[in-house]
Amino acid sequence: MFIFTITGVLFTLSAVLSVMFCLLSLEYEPSVENVGKIAPFIIIYIIALQTFIMLSVRYYQWSRWAIVFISLISIGLTVFSLINLSGYPNISYYFMSANLVAAVWSFVFFYTPLWDRFIQQRAKTFEQMHGYNPIKRRR
């Protein structure tokens, strides 16, 4: 459960930071007025992300698929930002690289149980058709 909690926090941070890096790469000025306009949307976004995390604790499939989809989007936005922010200092590349690692980790962490469940379902279907389970036979 500890790793799940840490991964949930990393997922939320990577999703929010990928949006911020994307806005920065599109030359969105970080002035007081612009931050005041975007802050409510970011807060709602964080609440929605944490809702997906809490729902996935109860093992709702759709919430895990939503987390996987949002992780893929944050990976894409971070790569887009890495490509477009060539004139910024090196520290921004370190932050974006760390954000990319966090997004990939959250994608792998939440996608692996879904893939395992899909394989188990396919093995049960195969067992019903052919009379043996190929996964259990290998063990």
TL;DR of this structure?
By secondary structure, the protein is mainly α. The protein has helices spanning 2-25, 32-57, 61-84, 90-130, 134-138.
Task: Please provide a written account of the structure.
It is a single chain. This protein is mostly helical and 139 residues long. It has one domain. The mean pLDDT is 79. The longest helix has 41 residues. The chain contains 5 helices and no strands. Helix 1 crosses helix 3, helix 1 packs across helix 4 and helix 2 packs antiparallel against helix 3.
Name the descriptors.
139 residues, elongated, single chain
Spatial gap, N to C terminus: 28 Å
Oligomer, anyone?
A: single chain
Count of individual helical segments: 5
The portion of residues assigned to helices is over 70%
Q: Mean pLDDT, nearest integer?
A: 79
User: How are helices and strands ordered from N to C?
Assistant: HHHHH
Helix-strand category: mainly alpha
Number of folding domains?
1
> Which band does the percent of strand residues land in?
under 5%
| Regions with little confidence, pLDDT below 50 for 5+ residues | none
State the total count of DSSP E strands: 0
| Shape annotation | elongated
Q: Cα-atom Rg, whole angstroms?
A: 19 Å
Report on the biggest sheet.
none
Keywords: Membrane, Transmembrane, Transmembrane helix
Transmembrane segments: 42-60, 67-85, 91-114
